[in-house]
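Amino acids appear as letters; backbone shape is given numerically. Here is one record.
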Amino acid sequence: MDRVGVGLAALGCAVVVGLCAVPSVAFADQKEDDARAVYCLDPARGPDMVRAAVQLEVAKPVTGEPGRLLPGPNRIRTLTVEQWYDRHPKDFGRVCEAVMAARSDTPGPAKDEGGGGVRDSALLAALGVVFTLFVQFVERGTSRRRERLTALTGATGTFSYEAELYLTAWRENVRSPHGEVATARAALAAALRGLALPGARGRAADGLGRTLPLPDPLEAVDAKSAGGARSWSPDERAAEILRVQAELSATVAEARELASSAAVWHVRRYIRTFRPSRPGTPPRTPDHEPRGGPTTGA
């Protein structure tokens, strides 16, 4: 599963949660405000509200009128509790909360008659659906990646095995059949392309698939000899086999690195840039051509 897919799935989760949660929170806040207003605007509680406002120093009392007060910074206009609620809602809310906290007959949490329970249930259901879809999305991506890595591991092992069999046979008979190696090589190239890796790892996988060893049968004669084409001597055959085996080892190592995590691959790549190549290890570049002929795509 690629990083873009994970990011989109996570963003979808966040959007759905936000769209569902914000209205629910706003609805709950509005219900609390309404409950306070109904409780504190009851005419029987007017004197309590006025006394509390005076004690909290947000208003002055009106002599002879227990249900009226002089609110605000100037405190020059007489208002009823209802008028105070309209014109100074912040102070009213503060005093109302204090009155409700001080009295034992304040209403408990109101029964959900406005659909809050249904809304909360819908929110939980939506979150459950989104979470389930996200988990399934991640699992499918993980399963696909696991299948690709399994295919790469199997194709790498098969190609290495067939190549070793071919080299063993070629040591005795330079015209040994090459068909099994070619088939295994094509399967490994396809597995490398199938990884569909992003960035530098993807380019490395494609490059490795194009430069796999033994694209063609090894030459039956040493065509590059200074004296013209001639048969291989036993020592020259052994040297040619060692050269190809070195390429095979490098190929297997690179394929295994590509099967590792991105972090491990980048660390190893970084280390290689500062570590000299071991003697006898052929370069892994598109220009490097095995003695068996020019490299061709699989």
